[in-house]
Design goal:
Layout: E1 7-8, E2 26-27, H1 35-38, E3 40-50, E4 62-71, H2 76-86, E5 91-94, E6 97-105, E7 115-123, E8 129-138, E9 141-150, H3 159-175
Antiparallel strand pairs: 1-3, 2-5, 3-4, 4-9, 5-6, 6-7, 7-8, 8-9
Length: 179
């Protein structure tokens, strides 16, 4: 278990995503491979969870999905910049659900991180569903961290973003270690 209380939820996979093996995100409904997706030479993903408290721990649990790609011919910073440019449309698709960006934010500067981009979005057909992402760059790698929340459960809104900001130093420290 990590110092933040998060533990590995599943065995890390050797692809960035089961549905999109080389994509960190599907921007603007573009499921086709982007040039930076085609430059992926190695990918991995893992899920992390922290069980909540109270009467229904499953309802108050937090989950962070981690996706990483190593790129040939591109730096991680270039990948993050291109993702940010691709997100100019303000929409993304995640697990077959469409989202509209409703907040961009800047995470604290972190040692070894060459670039970052962060935002949250609300589902276009279910305004109580929200997902937040932080993209990090280091050397020839880029990483996406994602957390989600459903606000029809009576809990405080903003949990997805808070989960990312709380765990970000831990993920960044591991991500920026030289291999």
């Amino acid at each position: 278990m990590a110092p933040t209380g998060f533990a590995l939820d599943d065995t890390p996979r050797s692809t960035i995503s089961v549905v999109y093996p080389k994509k960190l995100i599907v921007a603007c409904g573009r499921e086709a491979m982007e040039p930076w997706d085609e430059a992926v030479v190695e990918g991995s993903s893992a899920g992390w969870f922290k069980l909540g408290g109270g009467a229904n721990p499953a309802l108050t649990s937090e989950v962070v999905e981690e996706r990483m790609g190593r790129y040939d011919g591109l730096t991680g910073a270039q990948v993050v910049e291109r993702i940010e440019a691709a997100m100019a449309c303000g929409t993304f698709t995640e697990t077959a659900e469409d989202f509209k960006v409703d907040e961009k934010f800047t995470a604290p500067a972190l040692p070894g991180v060459d670039g970052q981009y962060a935002f949250c979005g609300v589902a276009t057909d279910a305004s109580d569903v929200r997902r937040c992402f932080v993209f990090l760059a280091h050397g020839d790698r880029a990483e996406a961290l994602e957390s989600s929340e459903t606000n029809d459960d009576g809990l405080e809104p903003g949990r997805a973003k808070k989960s990312l900001l709380t765990t970000l130093p831990m993920f960044a420290a591991a991500f920026t270690k030289d291999r």
